[in-house]
Amino acid sequence: MNCIDSSWLTAAYAQHKDYLINYTFSFINDRTEAECIVQYAFLQAHRKQTMQDYVLKWLMTVCHNTAVNFVRSRSRVNYHSPDTLLENSEKDNSIDTEMAVSPSEITLDNERK
Q1: Would you state the pLDDT for residue 8?
Q2: Nearest C-alpha neighbor of 52 from the set 86, 94, 6, 105
Q3: Those residues with Cβ within 8 angstroms of residue 71's Cβ, 6 or more apart along the chain or in another chain
């Protein structure tokens, strides 16, 4: 089995992790996803093993490209707020609002049980 010296990567992780998380967070505004993207970048660096001299620039590029892909995929998902859904339903009358239940009715119903 081929043993790879990854001490340079451990040092790079300790030195650049926080910076890369903040850098990635600035694109996607989601701390958890930013941390996942940075971990992915370091995993890619471990697999490549050739960019030791310019590791920060390479990691920033991987984080940037992965964050852009994340934002693109997230924008394809159609998120709607409850207000938007209600406005749209009033326009096309697809929801019977008389059958709608208010949160207080749900609470009262749950208290009866």
Answers
A1: 83
A2: 6
A3: 27, 28
- Tallying the residues shown for the chain, one arrives at 113
CA-CA distance, 60 to 98, in Å (whole number)? 53
* Residue 48 to residue 9: CA distance in whole angstroms: 11
Instruction: Report CA torsion sign: 99, 104, 107, 113.
Output: negative
Does the pLDDT at position 88 exceed 60? no
Alpha-carbon distance 25 to 60, whole Å? 12
pLDDT at 20: 95
String of DSSP letters for 50-110 = --GGGHHHHHHHHHHHHHHHHHHHHHHS----HHHHHHHHHHHT-S-GGG---HHHHHHHH
Q: What are 27-85's pLDDT values in tens digits?
A: 899 999 999 999 999 988 888 776 677 888 989 999 999 999 888 887 765 545 555 55
